[in-house]
Amino acid sequence: MTPKRAGLIPFLLLGISAALSVYVYAVLRAAGNKHATVWYLAVLYGLVLPAVLFYWRSDRDATSANVEITWPGLHLPAIAIFAILAIFLSQADEHGRLIPDESAYMFQARVFAAGELKARAMPGAEAGTPHDVPPEIYFEQTIQTPDGWYTKYPPGWPLVLALGYLVHLPWLVNPMLGLAQLAIAWWIAGLWGRNTQILTIVIAATSSFMLASSVGCMAHAVGGTICLLALGALLKGIDEKKVSWISLCFVLVVVSTQVRSYTGAVFGLLCAGICLYEYRKDWPFLLRTGLIAGTAGTASAALLLFTNWLFTGHPLLSPYTLAQASRHPQEMTFSPALILHNALHTTRWAITTTIQFTFPFMFLLAAYACMRETRRRRLLIYCALFFPLLIFAYLQTSLFPFMLRNEGSGSIDGERYYFEGFCAVAIVAARGFELLAQQWKVRSRAVFAAMAVMLCLQAANLFFTTKDIEKVFAPYRKAYLLAHSAPLMPLVFVSGNEPEFTSKHVNWNDADWWRAPTIYLNDPGPGRRRDVTCRFGRPSYRVVQYLPESKAFAKDDVLDVCSEPPRPSGQN
Q: Which listed residue, 10, 360, 409, 502, has the most CB atoms within 10 A of its CB?
């Protein structure tokens, strides 16, 4: 039997097992089974993985001393598909939200784009604490006190997003950052050759995890871009032993702490630990890098205190803490019981969804590369460290279970808290794929055929993720279109408190809302609409109400209520 025919049956087994994994997931997903991902992974690792290994073992060129495979330009169509999907989905999400935090980021970006630090607080914010504001002006993840209206999050991402608002393309910022990450990953992967570069882009660009985090207006894409660039600078500095590259790394670490403070701090500790290990026997160079790292840590802390003072008036009181009506961050409780709860009830589900929507066998390939690499092995391991460190870091805080227990982390198809480390580990997985094929001396046709099957799995997951994203933002898009339908009303009450649509999760107000043609508020209920309308000086209003029974929206316009006497209690 010829080698070509000998590999046919293993390839058919591979194709059938891959198709079965998608079929199982699709059926269970359609039925609403919460364990669909678990069953998908069971088939993927129980059948597809053995089929891949069997296929490759059956189609090897054991007589050759070395099997070199030249990969075609698969990265180009992968980049094109990623760009098209990310831009299309992000533009459709412009006035909606995938995650509640987006609305706060977008509002703060509009405030910055208007040249202000804070917006004017709305009537009703006179109480002085964020939790005492009336429900009609309460918008998730923002703070309203007498001195202004602003987000509880660090200002780094809203400042970047403000540039998008200045050119009237805020929805394009994250897709562009996603493409920037691919470019940086290509640059870093060049340390291991062109094949690793191509495979890195194929793995990252076809990942649903990458797509979901490059859509909308969350901070993870800019955080991932900054951290990946900093990691590249650090690896370059180590490889060439140049202080300038290491200095750039820690400058970017400081920037990252102004985007996502906790993630940036975790990354900064990783970079400092790498430098400590790398130069442990070179005391003069260790002292120089230690001074750089210490300066970066001091600068990060100083910037944090400064931004606290800018927004809250107190250096030791962050907006995040103020939003919780507390003097201390509740999320930073390192409770052993909470860590155990997190591991058993939240992290395991976060990890399983992340495994499904990254790339088939990605983490096994990364582990293989770390064990079998012989060229720049330490640098490859450094690339691999950030992702598991993020898993451990969020396991150590109460933020993760706090959010998941109440409303979920909001992640779509992969845990967003881990995203900043994704492209780095994609580089390692790409190298693992290449090393495995080389060391097993697998013929090129078997390597390309296995990759084709994996890309089919990726295409299926991209389809599912696209559907998931559309499902989340569709109700918000419908509400926005109704709120802005003719004739435009001076005030719009938005009503809805269901998982699929929650009015406090969207804030369409302009930075100068008091001068805007329309003000958007949460619906205070029929009994208070007239009072709120007259308090805002907008005598006519519209109610956009979500109807959970029909999953549709109703619109009702009411004119000149302030010129009428108050209606008796019980009348609308």
A: 360
The answer to whether the CB of 527 falls within 8 A of the CB of 518 is no
- List C-alpha distances in Å: 454 to 42, 49, 262: 16, 10, 34
Q: Give the pLDDT band (50/70/90) at residue 60.
A: confident
Residues 6+ apart with CB under 8 A from 16: none
Distance CA(278)–CA(75), nearest Å, equals 33
Concatenated DSSP letters for 383-403?
A: HHHHHHHHHHHHHTSSHHHHH
Cβ contact 400:409 at 8 Å: yes
> What pLDDT, in 10s, does the model give residues 423-462?
999 999 999 999 999 999 998 899 999 999 999 999 999 9
Structure tokens at 362: 């990605």
Closest CA to 218 of 141, 305, 111, 329: 141
Sequence-ordered alpha helix ranges (H) in 31-93: 36-43, 49-58, 75-92
CA nearest to 253, candidates 310, 302, 208, 296? 296
* Tokens 């992969």 found at: 414
Total residue length of the chain: 572
Q: In this structure, is the dihedral angle defined by the CA atoms of residues 417, 418, 424 and 426, taken in order, positive or negative?
A: negative
* Cα→Cα distances 234→125, 193, 230, 289, Å: 47, 18, 6, 11
Contact 225, 102 (CB under 8 A): no
Residues pairing with 554 in the sheet? 545
Listed in sequence order, the DSSP H helices in 190-282 are 194-205, 208-213, 220-240, 243-257, 261-278
**Among 365, 378, 375, 369, which Cα is nearest to 192's?**
375
From residue 438, how far is each of 125, 536, 564 by CA, in Å? 65, 70, 82
Nearest-angstrom CA–CA distance, 544 and 495: 6
pLDDT tens profile 281-339: 999 999 999 999 999 999 999 999 999 999 999 999 999 888 876 655 555 555 677 76
